[in-house]
Amino acid sequence: MVTLVISEIDKSIGPGDIVGAFINEVGTDSNNIGKIRIDKNSKKAEVEVELASAAKIIETMDGNQIGGVKVNIKAKNPDDLVDKEIMDYYNKFSQLLQLEREEEIDRHKLEIKYLSPSERQAKGRAMLDLRGKDAGTAFGHKPLVKFSSKYSGKKLPETEITTGDLVMISLDKPLHPNNPTGTVAEKTSYSITVAFEKHPPEFIYSKGVRLDLFVNETSFDRMFSALEKVKKPQNKVEERKRDILLAKKGFKNAAKSKFQSNFLNQSQIKAVEHSLAAEDFYLIQGPPGTGKTVTAVELICEAVKNGAEVLAAAQSNTAVDNLLELLVEKELNVIRVGHPIRVNKKLRKHTLDDRVLKHHSYMEAEKLRDEVSDLINKQDSYIYPGGKYRRGLSDQEIKEYAERDIEHHVRGISPRVIDEMASWLELQSKIDKYFKQIERLEKQAVEAVLNKADVICSTNITAGSEILEDFHFDLSVIDEATQATQPAALIPYFKADKSILLGDHKQLPPTVINQKAAGEGLAKSLFEKLSELHGDDALSSLIIQYRMNRKIMGFSSLNFYNDSLRADPSVADADLSDLGINPQSEKCFTEKALKAEFPMVFLDTIDMEAAERSLKASSSYDNPVEAEIVLDILDRAVMLSMDEHHIAVITPYKDQVDLLNQHNNLAEIEIDTVDAFQGREKEMIVFSAVRSNDEANIGFLRDLRRLNVALTRAKRKVIFIGDSSTICEHQSYKNLLTYIKRVGLYYRL
Ligand SMILES: Nc1ncnc2c1ncn2[C@@H]1O[C@H](COP(=O)(O)OP(=O)(O)OP(=O)(O)O)[C@@H](O)[C@H]1O
């Protein structure tokens, strides 16, 4: 039942009038009308009605008459009008997102507790040695404080902290509960301005304060906004796409579409054709290296050719850059929206910021900025009308006293001080006008650049930024879609009439740090949800991969893709000898492991003392013996003239990455976690499994999607280092060992 509130009713109206109006005017079934309570004093009535009748009653009767008097009708709680299934989805994901947000805050607290201040600054989540200065007020009188380095003229360190983030300010107790938190309002290379809810404590003006990232509030806000659209779509497109998300509307092909390409293979062409033909959405599933990104790019080109405005999005900045790079090669006008610092250097000239800088309206704004900065300098020579000088006088009063040229003190303020404050205020209104003009010109420049673009590229989260608020697209293409949570992917999903999602749910799912939230559905991507709801009609699979030697591909194909993957002949037999690496001697295990004839190698530490370690305050692990083995292999590979750029070391554990980085001197060899390396490839991958214990505990190696990613990054060789007595207690790893024994080299160290 939904409670409707009827307001402005006449005192003479009784329950019969209301029931009569609902039945006769709206056609409501009398069984759908429940209890009626009338409060004559407030001229209001509350009526319970069935959900099925509520919307129609409101639509017909709001502003209409009951008993000859015009009344207003609305639901007591607007959410009650929303279908239960929609509310369930909305409530569930709002709660999960909230859990994730709280977990993120807890993680920050933990990191602040255990890392030294400079370690946290090096991680890009804190700024040290700052000093605060009042910077007036903003957004409804919120006090603004501008922080800059306590060493004047020094640039601030590069951090991930950005406008909209919630930050915490402290002096020497970064976890004290009374530390103020505020929102970053503006950031430049030299200063960061924070808006507080109320006046912050005095200490923030001391030299040496510290600013910590607390939680990336902007991302959460944008995800919450996307969920709001599920509950309350703002237009027909959002409503239609919400209905698809909840399977209230089925998958539909709008038209048959023919597409030709000299580059793509048949399964890729089919995927593009289905995508072009689909009415609302389409899914392209592609195992590693099968060309999801190139297919996305061909699809985008075709859509642009047909006149579409396209948003190309992905969860990570790296994936967006990959798309951008390929789109630029196609000579499309592509604009990358997002903070330039997070964009690959060689692609920065395609960022919105860079393009805007060159726009004539922006250049005009710059000139005005110079002029206004002269005014600001001049303003500094007058007394700022702060509380202690103005003593309760309003701006208007100060101006009036100054105009009247009074010669006596007012509230104890001398005429000179009044004159100075008036001059300050006069300049301030000029400055305000300048800034309005500057803002208008800058906005013009941004809109002009964006309007001219064929394709706009951004991360899923940035697709929800204010800059793109007024933009709606014909098509959004979401690459890496299996790595985005539903609330994140819904951002680009709702921004276009049609969405194409590309991904592989056999690779790693979205990163969710709160285990409860992950278990209850936050780790399930929109791609997976749509594929479960709409089945095979809405999905194409790519099957030819262009990355791996067939033996590297084999295990993954058998175990994750029903043996459906095929290696393109151009890569099927690729090995290290093509790069001139093929040691003949077998003097040491490193040379043997690097032999070209073994595309897969398992180096087993079962006979060694190679136990894992877990450091205090860390939920991660490292393994020093495995690290030494890795470094030996790297040294040998480079000694054999292998290019450092062709090698990467990946491992599930961050602590192992850190340990390896501490000891590795080969600067161009990338060392990272498996999760961070998803979507990437190298000629050779060295993998360190780390786990070695008596309990056969393999931690999150148990998620086989991580194994799948780890094994599918290499083109010509994978060297897997691990303790079989721990990891091979698990069937899939036992299978891997058997497989490598069959197709490659198994070696007990
Ligand atoms: N039809 C094709 N002909 C030749 N090369 C291709 C073809 N399709 C893809 N490739 C090549 O295969 C490689 C992998 O393609 P891409 O990065 O698009 O794959 P992906 O499916 O996105 O990979 P991942 O799952 O690892 O992200 C690229 O070098 C690409 O140029």
Automatic annotation (TrEMBL):
Main location class: cytoplasm
Gene Ontology molecular-function annotations: 5'-3' DNA helicase activity; ATP binding; DNA binding; hydrolase activity; RNA binding
InterPro entries: AAA+_ATPase, Coronavir_polyprotein_1ab, DbpA/CsdA_RNA-bd_dom, DNA2/NAM7-like_C, DNA2/NAM7_AAA_11, Nucleotide-bd_a/b_plait_sf, P-loop_NTPase, SF1_C_Upf1
Residue ranges the record marks as coiled coil: 424-451
EC number(s) reported in the record: 3.6.4.12
Keyword vocabulary terms for this entry: ATP-binding, Coiled coil, Cytoplasm, Helicase, Hydrolase, Nucleotide-binding
Keyword Methyltransferase: no
CDD domains: RRM_DbpA, SF1_C_Upf1
TM region(s), chain numbering: none
All copies of domain AAA+ ATPase, residue ranges: 278-479
Highest taxon, organism lineage: Bacteria
Enzyme class, first EC level, given as a word: hydrolase
Subcellular location(s) of the protein: Cytoplasm
GO cellular component: chromosome; cytoplasm
NCBIfam families in the record: IGHMBP2 family helicase (TIGR00376)
Sequence similarity: Belongs to the DNA2/NAM7 helicase family.
Protein name in the entry: DNA helicase
Organism encoding this protein: Halanaerobium polyolivorans
